[in-house]
Amino acid sequence: MTFEQDLKASVRTIPDYPKPGILFRDITTLLGDARSFRRAVDELVQPWAGSKIDKVAGIEARGFILGGAIAHQVSSGFVPIRKKGKLPHTCVSMEYALEYGTDHIEIHVDALQKGERVVLVDDLIATGGTAEGAIKLLRQLGAEVVAACFVIDLPELGGADKIRAMGVPVRTLISFE
Ligand code: PRP
Ligand code: ADE
């Protein structure tokens, strides 16, 4: 098996979760397998391994797990981007598009310095609404978003292309049609 096939096999698919008709791509099985977890972290960060990254920004909730490991790997700080009302200090907030309706994500106002180079991390990109909101937040604080990394792409939903159109290089490791 190739690395990609191996990694794909370590993701569990749960039909009809959280709603009928959704095939939920569950990465807890990937995270629970030491080899898959390490390879996913190593591969996600590989294009930027030699360059200076000031901060890794992880999106709640599964982006925290991958983002924390990547931040350690590249010796950068970690910044959480959270759902509304979860962060304790003063926040900047951004509305983002859900499949039906909108919600808000937030970042601490002092989480980044202007000009800092940031890599955005999440487990999966679908419509790209969440990542788009996160990039707008990071840019509002003056960060340079050098890349957005996701283990899983759902290409039919067009999220990765949407993020590339914002001028942010996208790295994904596996796709589910
Ligand atoms: C999932 C996933 C991404 C987002 C991707 O999180 O972890 O953050 O959906 O979807 P999009 O590209 O269409 O915006 P979810 O909203 O389920 O939140 P959770 O991690 O808190 O469960
Ligand atoms: N977020 C959006 N779509 C998803 C899916 N199919 N599996 C897991 N997380 C998701």
Q: What can you see in these coordinates?
A:
With 177 residues, this protein is of the alpha/beta class. It has a single domain, classed as Rossmann fold, CATH 3.40.50.2020. Helices cover 32% and strands 33% of the residues. The chain has helices at residues 3-9, 28-32, 34-45, 62-74, 129-140, 159-165, and strands at 12-15, 23-26, 55-59, 77-83, 91-97, 102-108, 117-125, 144-153, 170-175. The chain has a 7-stranded mixed β-sheet, sandwiched between helices. Strands 1-2 form a two-stranded antiparallel ribbon. α3 crosses α4 (62-74). The chain is globular. The two termini are 20 Å apart. The mean pLDDT is 96.
Task: Summarize the SSE layout with pairings.
Elements: H1 3-9, E1 12-15, E2 23-26, H2 28-32, H3 34-45, E3 55-59, H4 62-74, E4 77-83, E5 91-97, E6 102-108, E7 117-125, H5 129-140, E8 144-153, H6 159-165, E9 170-175
Parallel strand pairs: 3-4, 3-7, 7-8, 8-9
Antiparallel strand pairs: 1-2, 4-6, 5-6
Helix pairs in contact: 3-4
